[in-house]
Write a structure and sequence with these properties.
Shape: globular
Order of helices and strands: EHHEHEHEHHEHHH
Strand content: 5-15%
Largest sheet: 5 strands, parallel
Radius of gyration: 20 Å
Number of strands: 5
Strand order of the largest sheet: 2-1-3-4-5
Helix content: 25-40%
Length: 240
């Protein structure tokens, strides 16, 4: 009955429905106008994402009327793990990362040509804090990610978006505009704090609005309480 908005990505997307999360905020924002569908997969990179596309987006919604309004694609934080550090198994070389993003976009646009796709770059990395949260045994005592590497993958993400003609959010740059971003925007040097989640929410809503998708343009489903005639309530439901 309502159109859909898919959120596709790694743990930053998977956690987005937590309290104060950017996905939960989008759900609240589009209450009664769109269904927000979470497709977040902790630890995934673009290589793994390509392997599961058909499972994540089964070929059931093919007509234009069934196409989702939008899909956010939010990968890169794991791809940017360094190849010689403790999360090397998640690393994807930069050129492959770009190729994988191209393939993901081609899949989505091939299935739903009218759907708006928004690429979100990986966030910045606070390296000292990452040392406190190793995913695997860290024998080298070095951070598994660096802010420089994250920046390179963010730039690649923006380049792919420009090449494919889709919207992009430069989260890496946007968050570093916040004073003390290392702790203001990030909870563990990688994942998002409440402030970080708020930034993503605001940027996604802004990107959707630029494409004509907003509370002002999307219809509310079914009669609202202020539209129901107190003297003849059922009249409002005729023809539904």
């Amino acid at each position: 009955m309502r159109p859909k908005i898919y959120l596709f990505g790694d743990s930053i997307t998977e956690r987005s429905f937590d309290e104060g999360g950017w996905g939960a905020s989008i759900v609240k924002h589009f209450n009664r106008t769109a269904d927000v569908v979470l497709r977040g997969y902790s630890g995934y990179n673009t290589r793994w994402a390509l392997k599961v596309l058909e499972k994540v987006f089964p070929a059931t919604e093919k007509s234009e009327s069934e196409s989702p309004l939008a899909v956010t694609v939010f990968f890169g934080a794991n791809d940017a793990s360094l190849a010689d550090r403790c999360s090397a198994f998640q690393h994807v070389p930069l050129e492959e990362f770009k190729h994988n993003l191209h393939s993901i976009l081609a899949f989505l646009k091939g299935r739903w040509p009218t759907t708006e796709v928004i690429l979100i770059s990986p966030p910045p990395i606070d390296e000292p804090t990452r040392l406190l949260y190793p995913f695997a045994e860290n024998k080298l005592g070095l951070p598994e990610r660096t802010n420089e590497a994250a920046g390179n993958y963010a730039k690649a993400c923006l380049a792919v978006a420009a090449e494919c003609g889709v919207s992009a959010i430069d989260l890496w740059t946007r968050m570093q505009q916040i004073p003390g971003w290392q702790t203001a925007c990030l909870s563990d040097g990688l994942h998002l704090s409440r402030t970080g989640n708020k930034i993503v929410f605001e940027e996604v809503i802004k990107a959707l609005k630029k494409k004509g998708l907003s509370l002002e343009t999307l219809p509310v489903d079914l009669p609202q309480i202020n539209e129901v005639d107190p003297n003849d309530p059922l009249k409002s439901f005729e023809g539904i």
